[in-house]
Specification:
Layout: H1 17-50, H2 60-63, H3 65-88, H4 90-109, H5 114-143, H6 148-176, H7 181-184, H8 186-200, H9 214-232, H10 234-237, H11 243-262, H12 279-308, H13 314-320, H14 322-339, H15 348-363, H16 372-387, H17 390-399, H18 406-437, H19 457-463, H20 467-476, H21 480-512
Helix pairs in contact: 1-5, 1-6, 1-8, 3-4, 3-5, 3-9, 3-18, 4-5, 4-8, 5-6, 5-18, 6-13, 6-14, 6-17, 9-11, 9-18, 12-13, 12-17, 12-18, 12-21, 14-16, 14-17, 15-16, 15-21, 18-21, 19-20, 19-21
């Protein structure tokens, strides 16, 4: 294999301009992929009215498919990324992923109805699903073991800021222009990313020796998609026992189980489970699963709390939770530098302590009337912990792998994070929804046709800040004391949800205790034959 640039990056401690340029390419791709998820979530109410064909607003469950279809496409394509990187080369595949995502974004902006939008979101997801695992592979191979922590910290910035900036950007674009710009904003970023990648990344000259694991693909990709579809249907159904949840989830688990048995037969399986022989990867993935499920599930609740309890706009809620991103940005470069100098087992526990303190504080601060500054303070502490936790975990997982295993290792990490985030969001959403349903029903189904079971004070309070919700409260003649009790019940529901996340994070301390506390030899500079690999993986 040859490149048009020097093939080896000297393994020293310097962050060179060439490395920063490569990091810039990866960050651009990550920004597009991650930001798009939260930006589109803000636009769902707009889709309900503006993409309706008969004048009647579309149901939320229908428009939610614009988010679900994207996530399912992500889940289906991620396992293929490791094989495709070996087969076609990282540069070609990365540029293809950016192009797919950008074309998908342009088509989304031209969607004439909800069905077209859902279809174009699938195309977007096929590109977006490859961006993160490929980006991690590129960064890992470019950095070498001595600089990996600092460069991975750079990649962590968009992962943290996406959920924070998404609602703000989405609200601004929809208010100032139209929902089309939620997708059109990706066009200039995608074009810049393509030109940047073409110029900065070394040329590919792959010499593929592996065949595609077709059986593995048939089992794993549909299995992941079905499992995530079932899990993502839990909030809508309100129970794990619904057929819409159980059937796809069970079929998905069976397919994934069949893949596990199959994966040890071919020499090069689609997802190499033999990598779990690496202790650091195994411990990091277990930690990542529990951490992502709890943290991302709880993270989703914060802007919802500001909107439903305090009545803030999407933009103001997004600005307030920026405190968490600021905290993370302060500790992330420090943690990245420390990860290059000491084992992550001596760094991550301190980050987890910050997260536990922050989430504990949030659980104590849900009462109506709680100062914004108090909540922002707890979010800031949570962010400090987050910045010292997430990217060191990624670094620990990949640092001791052989160079030839990095693409599949990053694929395994991204599959884990995707499943964990979906599981956490679904679980905590159900906890919140069911807690809001507890209590006396004050508006029955006979008063509210089409609303199954009626509404509790907490449910009325949750929507009372919207024009439609306040009109409903007035029409029903809900007394002020009942509405006040509804807000207290709503605050208690958020508190219950935060406690669930807190106890999962406490459980995560068990695998955290097994993270490496001694420096271990990195194999990033060793390929399977012991030779030194080039800067990029092909």
């Amino acid at each position: 294999m040859t490149t048009d640039q020097p093939s080896v990056v000297p393994d020293d401690d310097k962050i060179t301009p060439d490395l920063l340029k490569i990091a810039g390419v990866v960050v651009l791709g990550a920004i597009m992929s991650i930001l798009d998820v939260t930006v589109v979530n803000v636009a769902l109410p707009t889709f309900q009215t503006e993409l309706s064909s008969n004048g009647e607003p579309l149901s939320y469950s229908t428009v939610a498919w614009t988010a679900t279809a994207y996530m399912l496409a992500l889940a289906a394509v991620i396992p293929l990324t490791g094989w495709a990187a070996d087969r076609f080369g990282t540069k070609r595949l990365y540029m293809t992923a950016i192009a797919l995502f950008t074309i998908g974004s342009l088509l989304c902006a031209t969607a004439w109805n909800i069905e077209a939008l859902i279809g174009f979101r699938v195309l977007q997801g096929l590109g977006g699903g490859m961006l993160m695992p490929l980006g991690m592979t590129i960064m890992t191979k470019a950095a070498g073991p001595h600089r990996m922590g600092r460069l991975m910290a750079i990649l962590g910035v968009p992962m943290l800021l996406g959920p924070i900036l998404g609602p703000i950007l989405g609200g601004v674009l929809i208010d100032a222009a139209s929902w089309h710009w939620v997708f059109l904003i990706n066009l200039p970023i995608g074009i810049i990313g393509l030109l940047y990648a073409q110029r900065v990344l070394p040329k590919d000259a792959p010499e593929p020796s592996e065949k595609l694991d077709v059986v593995g693909m048939i089992l794993l990709s549909p299995g992941l998609a079905l499992l995530l579809y079932g899990v993502s249907s839990i909030p809508e159904e309100g129970t794990v026992l619904a057929l819409k949840v159980l059937l796809p989830a069970i079929v998905g688990v069976l397919l994934i189980g069949a893949f596990v048995f199959w994966s040890f037969k071919p020499q090069h399986p689609l997802l190499d489970l033999r990598l779990f022989r690496d202790r650091n990867l195994t411990v990091s993935i277990i930690t990542m699963f529990l951490f992502a499920a709890a943290f991302f599930g709880a993270l989703l609740l914060v802007p919802t709390y500001f909107q439903q309890v305090d009545g803030y706009s999407v933009k103001k809620a997004g600005l307030l939770i920026a405190a968490q991103g600021i905290g993370a940005m302060l500790t992330m470069p420090i943690a990245g530098a420390l990860t290059d100098k000491m084992p992550v087992g001596r760094i991550v526990p301190f980050g987890f302590l910050g997260i536990l303190i922050g989430v504990f504080g949030l659980a104590q601060s849900t009462d109506p009337g709680t100062s914004d500054w108090t909540i922002m303070g707890w979010l800031f502490i949570t962010g400090l912990g987050m910045g010292a936790t997430m990217m060191p975990l990624f670094t620990s997982a990949l640092k001791t792998l052989k160079a030839s295993d990095v693409a599949r290792g990053s694929t395994l990490l991204n599959v884990t994070q995707q499943v964990a985030s979906a599981t956490g969001i679904a679980t905590i959403s159900v906890v919140l929804t069911n807690a809001m349903k507890s209590g006396a029903v004050i508006a029955g189904s006979e008063q509210l046709p089409g609303v199954e079971g009626g509404l509790t004070p907490a449910q009325l309070a949750a929507g009372s800040h919207t024009e439609q919700g306040s009109g409903l409260v007035d029409a029903l003649g809900v007394p002020a004391n009942v509405l006040a009790q509804g807000f207290q019940d709503l605050a208690d529901a958020f508190q219950s949800s935060y406690w669930v996340a807190f106890f999962v994070l406490v459980a995560t301390l068990v695998p955290v205790a097994f993270l490496p506390r001694k420096r271990e030899k990195s194999h990033l500079l060793d390929d399977q034959d012991g030779a030194t690999p080039p800067i990029m993986m092909h």
